[in-house]
Specification:
With 211 residues, the chain is mainly α. The protein has helices at residues 25-43, 83-86, 93-115, 129-154, 159-169, 179-184, 197-209, and strands spanning 2-4, 11-13, 48-52, 63-68, 71-76. The strands form two sheets. The chain has a three-stranded mixed beta sheet with strand order 3-5-4, covered by helices on one side. A two-stranded antiparallel ribbon has the order 1-2. Strand 1 and strand 2 form a beta hairpin. Helix 1 (25-43) packs across helix 3 (93-115) and helix 4 runs antiparallel to helix 5 (159-169). 37% of the residues are buried. Residues 1-18 and 121-130 have low confidence and may be disordered. Residues 1-19 form the signal peptide. Keywords: Signal.
Amino acid sequence: MLKLFPLLSLVLFSLPAVAASSLTALETRWLKAAAPVVSYAREQGLPLDIVVQPQEAPGSVPLALGFDGGRCKLVLSMRGNAQAEAVLQGVPSARQGLMIAAMAAHEIGHCQRHAQGGGFVQRGIVRSDLREQGETRREEGYADLVALAWVHARHRDAYQEVLAWLRSVRQEGGSHDTRAWLALAGDSTVFDTAQTPFKQADLLWRQGLGE
C-alpha cells in the first residue's frame, strides 16, 4: 500500500501498472495534458513514474501522488470513476488541459518535497489528528504554490484563471484549506523571478508560515 497525497483528498490503494496500448481515451487525454509537467520534473531529476490503475476506482481522486521505493508515482484512477469528469465540471473544454497540467504540477510539488526529505516522509510517527491536519494543510499549500509558479512560467495569460479555479476547489477549514497561501499568490508578480517553480513556491510558502 502506498500513501497518496492528491489535490482534493487523501486515499490509499495499491498501484498496478497498465500497458500504454490499453489506455482509454480519457486516460490518454489526461496524460497528454500532464506531459509537459512530467517532462519538466524529470529534467529536474525527480524520481517520477507514471501509473494508471487498470481496475475501476469509483470515488477515487483522478490524479494523485504515491511514494514507493524512493520513487514518486503519479497515479491516474480514471476507470469507473465519475470524479474524473466532475473535477473539471464548469471548466471550459478549451481550458481543461491547463487545469489537468496544474493538478500535475501540484503533485510534482509533493514529489519534490519528498525527494528533498521533507513533506510526508515522517508520516509514520504517531501524531494527533489536529497536528496531522495542520501538516497536511502546509504541504498542500506548498504544492498549490508550485502549480501556480509553473503556470506563471508557461501560461502567464491564464494565471488568474487557474488561481480562481484552485480557490474554488479549496473548501473552508479542514486539511486542504490552502487559502492563506493562495491569497499571497493573488498578484502573479510574486513569481517574477528566474528561479525554479520549486524555489519560487518555497519562498512564498515560508512567508505564509511566518518564517
